[in-house]
Write a structure and sequence with these properties.
With about 450 residues, the chain is of the alpha/beta class. The protein is about 35% helix and about 20% strand. It is built from 17 helices and 20 strands.
């Protein structure tokens, strides 16, 4: 019996354990942290061996293969030890992909991939298709494949779902033989450079792994307005159909559009999507809707079906969410904006004066790209971080008022005093959250709690 070791017992690891056991592996799960009770319960009920709070090398380095959580860097001693023993280390996506022949729509990119993935899922589901949302969002892909396999055992004629997968660069790094039927690169801007030796070319190569193994039956969709994508294409070869998207019209197959509408052209057939009823607004969301429209048309949906879905879409939390309005000042939660490019889109989306809350764990950010968008618009910056020196230095003389804080409640109160009716308080951190918070969700939730508490306090 082959022995599979799984490093990390979260959603991804537990789903992989279920699938691996069902496929006849001897499974061992190891997590350096504390395993959540809900995952422990699943592992115990399935009699899957696990440990927490440590990695016991004697129980790990005897594996035939290892599946690691995307959060574990390749540079860690344990991963190096596995590779030195020539034990393959793969991602959950790579492992799970071996056990399904269903169509896989895979979406990556520095920004927009979550909204685009959710939008695509909603569009296809609204169009009457059987769709599963998984990967970096939704449930574990491995668990979804496990459920698919169970359904087929019960009914050999059961329909295969369409998987819509959001994929991070860390997941792509552990993928080798996996093939996407439709692959999307929304855009590429510098991010996570600390994981790529601060070399942008390594990060770009990671994103382009989504196209590996594609053949002429596959489709690659990419944002040609992204400079790093455009510069990579001359040296990039694929057998897949290529469909670029852009806000600048051309006569090639693909998509172009603005906030009024999107034109899709594939094999000399043109489809126009009216965006006047779309819930999502802003130039960055035009890009997101272009991708979803291309996928929808490729899979047979018409303009009316796509327009109807865009009018009923609800975005995920922590993405330009209005939390509350206090004294005429709107508080916006965009905690998911963990890099420069995503913060740029948020800042660009508003015409009102902004009190901007930014900061966190810097990932090699170059803030000069934000100078033009903040001049004359951002009236104050509050640096919510343990180390604000780089932010303060970057925007000194550009943003009139710069303050710093390490407490979200104080930050929200300060923002209120700095604003006036008609202003926007925008949490769009531009950085990872790990210096003061568990993750971007924790940061966003604490921001919402602080805003709503302040709103209640002022009503008393």
């Amino acid at each position: 019996m082959k022995r599979l070791v799984i490093l990390g017992a979260g959603e991804s690891g537990t789903g992989t354990a279920l699938l691996a056991k069902a496929k006849g592996f001897e499974v061992f799960v190891s997590d350096m942290g504390v395993i959540q009770d809900k995952y422990k319960k699943v592992l115990s009920e399935e009699n899957i061996a696990f440990e927490e709070g440590k990695h016991t090398e004697d129980l790990i380095l005897n594996a035939c293969e290892a599946v690691k959580s995307p959060g574990i860097p390749d540079k860690t001693p344990l991963i190096k030890a596995l590779k030195e023993k020539k034990i393959p280390v793969v991602s959950e996506i790579e492992f799970a992909g071996r056990y399904t022949s269903a169509k896989k729509i895979c979406i990556t990119g520095t920004n927009g991939k979550t909204t685009t993935t959710l939008l695509t899922y909603h569009l296809l589901q609204s169009g009457g298709m059987s769709v599963v949302l998984a990967g970096n969002i939704g449930e574990s892909f491995a668990k979804a494949v496990y459920e698919e396999c169970k359904n087929k055992e019960k009914d050999i004629n059961s329909d295969e779902p369409i998987y819509v997968l959001e994929l991070s660069s860390f997941q792509l790094d552990g993928m080798y033989d996996f093939k996407a039927d439709i692959g999307v690169i929304t855009n590429i801007t510098p991010d996570h450079l600390d994981r790529y030796d601060y070399k942008i070319e390594k990060y770009v190569a990671s994103k382009f792994r989504i196209a590996q193994n594609m053949d002429e039956q596959c489709t690659l969709i990419y944002g040609i307005d992204s400079e790093l994508i455009e510069n990579t294409l001359p040296d990039f070869e694929t057998d897949a159909e290529e469909l670029p998207f852009s806000i600048y019209p051309d006569d090639l197959d693909g998509a172009c559009g603005d906030e009024e509408g999107i034109t899709i052209q594939i094999d000399n057939e043109e489809t126009f999507i009216d965006l006047n009823s779309a819930v999502l607004k802003g130039k960055h969301n035009v890009y997101n809707m272009m991708v979803a429209s291309l996928i929808g048309v490729k899979l047979g949906l018409n303009a009316s079906q796509i327009e109807a879905a865009f009018a009923t879409f609800e975005n995920a939390a922590h993405r330009m969410q209005l939390v509350a309005e206090i004294n005429g000042i709107k508080f916006i939660n965009d905690s998911k904006a963990t890099n420069v490019d995503s913060a740029w889109y948020a800042l660009d989306a508003y015409k009102e004066p902004i009190i901007w809350i930014a900061g966190g764990t810097d990932k090699g950010n170059d803030y000069t790209a934000l100078h033009k968008v903040v001049i004359g618009k951002v009236k104050a910056l509050i640096c919510l971080t343990k180390d604000s020196d780089k932010l303060k230095e970057s925007f000194k003389g550009i943003i009139p008022v710069i303050n710093e804080s390490q407490n979200i409640v104080e930050t929200v109160k300060l923002a209120l005093t700095l604003g006036k009716s008609g202003d926007i308080v925008l949490l769009s951190p531009c950085c990872a959250s790990f210096d003061l918070f568990k993750n971007y969700e924790d940061r966003g939730n604490k921001f919402k709690e602080a805003v709503l508490a302040l709103q209640m306090e002022l009503k008393v």
